[in-house]
Design goal:
Strand content: 5-15%
Number of strands: 23
Oligomer: single chain
Structural class: alpha+beta
Radius of gyration: 30 Å
Shape: globular
Helix content: 40-55%
């Protein structure tokens, strides 16, 4: 081979090389060609091209830094996505080495400058009989010209580090740091109908029947789920049709394949099985003698775990069609329905109900909470992919230096949490302006009811606006559950926050014309980066991203209201049992007590009842011996701040929080974001740029670092910390210059 041949290998020659150089996909295609199958012409850019690209752009350093933040096995899926995004960004902006550019030019020259190309991954170990990476790595179809081919190479190489690929490799016990990627480039062939054939049903079952699925156009439409296929079930020994199901989109037309076409696909499947020596699946296009094989893979025989989290996680990446359906469904039906339900439950007078009716009301609330939590997981969380989709779309088009620049497009969304915070700022301003309001609030104790406060404020002429706002905060904004407690019953917590905010004299956060200009500038930057014919597509991505950003935040608050209303009903039921002498000990009831209280109300009698109550948060004691000087997390909101730590795990902790402290918690929940404007910085155990705490922190310009393991065991109240939201670092103890005056032993 000549010097250039190391960087470009014709598919016909790939079989002579080890899989570690060309990957499984290139080897399979080379085997097919040698066996006489019709295969689109093409080349393999071996692993050496990837390695040269990584070395030239020093990407191994970036990858090592990201994988070194914390073990992948302990990352939540939000953290995996962030890690992947931070790796993907420098890949997309990387410079292609000269030998690889020369290889790309040769591909274009030999396959034709106008020939559309398919660029696909061919990672070593990608298509084994015990595992399959199908769908985890990027494929780019319809590529024309050298520049577009180089861009496609970057995308495919970067997909080696996608969140899904990282998750899958971790679950298989592979070392992601050792991953490499070869790439297959072929001419696009679309010759009539296309489809996928499985020699054995990949879902298993008693009968190992063969499966053939077919769509009218490109096989990508089938693989991506954009078009519903015609489907045949074939007898495994002779290919006899056992079952046929026509696509619902084509219900009135003839089947896409006739008997001769099916026989040709069946023959291809049998030859593929003979070639591999194991069950196989084949992607193909065309009919009869013009049947062209696009891909060949062994069918994975490794059984998935009983509860496979990867399947759920991968469902969080719905396609564009499904995402649009989700957005419309959630915005137009689910959210209004959830809000109406919360309002109805909050308006019901439970105290006047008889025991049976009260038991039924408790059951209704418990059922509603369970139902909406399922909807939350099935619909609301997948909808959040709209923001991730926007992030990838923006970065692919604009190639910004900051992988999170796209978040600026989402500023100014009118989320419930921000409405609540704006009202708090207005109430704090009224406290500063009117001393008599402050005097009244400072006299409030832990058990004071809102009606008593409103009565105390009524003689003060200027307090009417404040009283109205205070009532709005409690109903509905604070009608949520936090740490097993109803914040609507903790007026003392709200008053403490308002007094702190009033003392701080902090102005209400106002996006202002400058922030609005930033949003407009980023939007224009995206539109300028895409071709004119894709501008409508870009605006659609923006619309879906912004909608999912707002709804994904609001749904937490509205579900929290249902949980609060369940707790309210349980408290009414427990109080009734106490009055009847059936609760000798009276803990605050929790959701765990639902069945006990319902049964006691229905059965009547005088039998004593024992309640569990909500479980208290586990105590975490920070050890001062050997504590690290620096904690490494994720950079969730830029900025630098120092302050004293305040651990927040309960409603009482919310009340103890003081202005200027560093808020440290497992996660900023939407039900307690009214605390965030008081904090100088945030540190969270849960990680991710797009989780709730990070969203609110960036809106308010507060530094945030998240994704730190064993956080509550590493910090304690009063610790001095420096929070670096740019790098994702937390320095524990006084700053270095303050240590210079400390005498050494």
């Amino acid at each position: 081979m000549g010097a250039q041949a190391r960087w470009l290998i014709p598919l016909a020659d790939a079989l002579a090389l080890p899989e570690s150089q060309v990957g499984g996909k290139a080897l399979r295609l080379s085997e097919l060609q040698r066996a006489g199958f019709r295969v689109p012409p093409g080349f393999c850019l071996p692993v050496a091209c990837y390695e040269r690209f990584v070395k030239k752009n020093e990407l191994d350093v970036k990858i090592g830094m990201e994988l070194g933040r914390k073990p992948l096995s302990s990352m939540r899926w939000e953290e995996l996505w962030d890690t992947a995004l931070r790796i993907r960004s420098p890949f997309l902006g990387g410079k292609i080495p000269a030998p690889v550019t020369a290889a790309a030019r040769r591909v274009i020259r030999e396959l034709g400058p106008e020939q559309p190309l398919a660029v696909r991954s061919s990672a070593p170990g990608e298509d084994h009989g015990q595992m399959s990476f199908a769908g985890l790595h990027e494929s780019v179809v319809g590529v024309r010209g050298t520049d577009a081919l180089l861009d496609a190479l970057r995308l495919v190489w970067a997909s080696l580090w996608s969140d899904a690929a990282l998750l899958y490799r971790t679950e298989l016990g592979l070392a992601p740091a050792h991953s490499r990627m070869a790439v297959v480039v072929q001419a696009v062939v679309e010759d009539g109908p296309s489809g996928v054939g499985f020699s054995h049903d990949p879902r298993g079952g008693v009968e190992p029947n063969a499966i053939v699925e077919c769509v009218p156009g490109s096989c990508a439409d089938l693989v991506d789920g954009a078009v519903e296929p015609d489907r045949w079930v074939l007898e495994p020994t002779d290919g006899h049709v056992l079952e046929y199901r026509r696509s619902r989109e084509r219900a009135a037309v003839a089947p896409l394949l006739d008997d001769a076409d099916l026989a040709a696909v069946w023959a291809m499947l049998r030859e593929a099985v003979s070639l591999l020596g194991r069950p196989a699946d084949v992607e193909w296009t065309g009919r009869g003698e013009r049947l062209t094989c696009l891909q060949l893979r062994p069918i994975t025989t490794r059984p998935p775990p009983a509860e496979d989290p990867r399947s759920w996680y991968l469902s969080l990446r719905p396609g564009e069609k499904r995402l649009k359906q989700l957005a419309e469904h959630v915005a137009l039906r689910r959210m209004p329905e959830l809000e109406r339900l919360g309002q109805r439950l909050a308006s019901e007078d439970l105290a006047c109900l008889k025991d049976e009716a009260l038991a039924a009301a408790i059951e209704e609330r418990a059922t509603a909470v369970d139902q909406w939590k399922r909807i939350y997981w099935d619909e609301f969380i997948p909808l959040a992919h709209g923001v991730r989709q926007l992030g990838r779309y923006y970065n692919d088009a604009v190639r910004p230096a900051d992988p999170y620049e796209f978040v600026g497009l989402l500023k100014g969304q009118d989320m419930v949490a921000m409405q609540r915070n704006r009202l708090n700022f207005r109430l704090a301003a009224l406290i500063r302006k009117h001393p008599r309001i402050r005097q009244t609030l400072e006299s409030i104790g832990g058990g004071t009811e809102i009606e008593a406060v409103e009565a105390a404020l009524s003689p003060i002429p200027e307090a009417a606006e404040f009283a109205d706002g205070l009532g709005t905060q409690l109903r509905p904004y604070m009608d949520v559950a936090y740490a097993g407690e109803r914040l609507a019953t903790r007026l003392d917590v709200l008053v403490s926050m308002l007094l702190q905010l009033a003392d701080a004299d902090k102005p209400e956060h106002d996006p202002g014309p400058g922030e609005k200009d930033i949003v407009a500038r980023l939007e224009q930057r995206l539109l300028d980066a895409v071709s004119p014919e894709r501008r409508e597509e870009a605006m659609h991505m923006l619309q879906i991203g912004r909608l999912s950003w707002r709804l994904r935040d609001d749904d937490n608050v509205l579900v929290g209201r249902l949980e609060s209303q369940l707790l309210r009903a349980l408290q009414v039921g427990a109080e009734r049992l106490r009055v009847h002498g059936r609760l000798p000990n009276y803990p605050v009831p929790g959701a765990e007590d639902t069945r006990t209280i319902v049964q006691a109300l229905r059965q009547g009698g005088s039998e004593p009842v024992s309640l569990t109550g909500p479980a208290p948060p586990a105590a975490a004691v920070a050890s001062t011996a050997g504590r690290p000087r620096q904690l490494v997390g994720q950079p969730a909101s830029p900025g630098l701040a120092s302050g004293r730590v305040r651990l927040v795990r309960t409603a009482d902790d919310l009340k103890r929080f003081r202005i200027g402290e560093v808020l440290v918690c497992l996660a900023i929940e939407p039900t307690m974001t009214q605390l965030v404007p008081l904090a100088c910085a945030i540190i969270e155990r849960r990680g991710g740029m797009l989780i709730h705490g990070a969203i609110i922190a960036r809106e308010l310009g507060i530094p945030c670092v998240n994704g730190i393991d064993d956080l509550l065991g590493r910090l304690e109240d009063g610790d001095s910390v420096i929070v670096d939201g740019h790098l994702g670092l937390v320095t524990v103890g006084p700053p270095d210059f303050a240590l210079e005056g400390v005498a050494l032993p």
